[in-house]
Amino acid sequence: MSVKIGVPSKGRLMEKTFGWFADRGVELGRSGEEREYAGFVRGVENVELVLLSAGEIPRELAAGRIHLGVTGQDLIREKLGGWEQVVEEVEVLGFGAADLVLAVPQAWVDVGTLDDLDAAAAAFRERHGFRLRIATKYHRLVREFLRDNGVADYQLVDSQGATEGTVKNETAEAIADITSSGDTLRANHLKTLEDGMILRSQATLFRSRRVAHDPEDHAALKALLDTLGVD
Q: Which region, left, alpha or beta, applies to residue 168 given φ > 0 means left and ψ of -120 to 50 means alpha?
């Protein structure tokens, strides 16, 4: 048996994760060709690297198929109901920062807060005969946020890409999406509500609470965490 750690399989998130581990004495890397999802671990014994998409890592942690995983806090909270019972945060890694925000058209000069949005949503439904549409891929997080803030007269429209363009394309009236600089929102004539911050997210090392207990794996996991200098 060996401890399995899931890491994003490509892009800057993979590179920065490799760098974070390397800075702490554990080398992670790809083995084989670029399209081959195989990797290696050096610096600790009995640890196996599993390369996955960031979106798959919450599922694998929840199923107990990997012991540790690096992914965004937004993905954990969106994909895992009652996430704190399924995984635990081991270490926030200091990169991959992004904010999940609620944004509306800049032309809505009278809508700057959630209370304004609630009033606008009620007026929109009365005028058009259907609920105001909010495009997002973060259905759980957005629904919980709006419920907690008393906004009810809306419907979520699924958007798995180019969410900022849905308002221009008239498939939604507002959006909830990840942003780092806000440049894409502004380029699409959108503004974040003053109190529209849903979640501040960044890359985090998570530990599964669902892995079956094995003394050898426990010892290898402890050795890995000790080497990384985290609890």
A: alpha
DSSP class of residue 164 equals G
Q: Phi/psi class of residue 189: alpha, beta or left (left: φ > 0; alpha: ψ in -120 to 50)?
A: left
Biggest CA–CA distance in the chain, Å, is 65
| Integer Cα distance of 52 and 69 in angstroms | 9
Nearest Cα residue to 40 out of 58, 54, 22, 53: 22
Nearest of 138, 167, 121 to residue 73 by alpha carbon: 138
What is the model's pTM?
0.91
pLDDT in tens, 7-60: 999 899 999 999 999 999 999 998 866 555 678 999 999 999 999 999 999 999
Per-residue pLDDT, 230: 93
3-state secondary structure of 122: helix
